[in-house]
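Note to self: keep these together.
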Amino acid sequence: MKNQSSFSSKLICGECGDVYRKYIEHAGRPSEKSNWKCKRYIYQNRVHCRNLFLTEKDIETAFIFATNKILSRKWMLDKGKKKEPPRITLEIRKLEERIKELEEEERFSSKELSELIFKRAKAYYSIAKIDDYDYNTEKTKQALGEKEQLTEFEEDIFISIIKQIVIYKDGRIIVEFINGITMEEDYEKVREDE
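Structure:
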């Protein structure tokens, strides 16, 4: 774990969906350099995914840019998330109808009714979503504290507020914070800042 980078499992390829990992070229030589590439870049000795390569500096810069956008628009963190009701599936509707039929027939102690109630609970559980937006927004606010702007990469903030960074071949870098807010960065702008 001590060799684990704070970027591990947070960088996602927008083309194939796999994670990025660190590749070191010319290890031990003066020309040694490391890049983050899609894990499927080379698979079975063949190039499979031709998505963009990033240096650690690129990743840090994308994080700083995205975080500074949030800091300049702190009102985004105060805006509540619109809650949407769970979508009722056809399976749940059928279960609800059959349960209602059995209840109308007053067959409360039937084995079928108890099984249907259990199946309905299981179906609702499968479509349930964890609503942790408020908690994660508060966690983001605390991590950013009274900061007005980030001028350098801060690993502890990165680890605590970034859910993932998705890299696309067309140069878009989508930085997603833990509360679901996303900021889009441009690969070329990130590279210029080096």
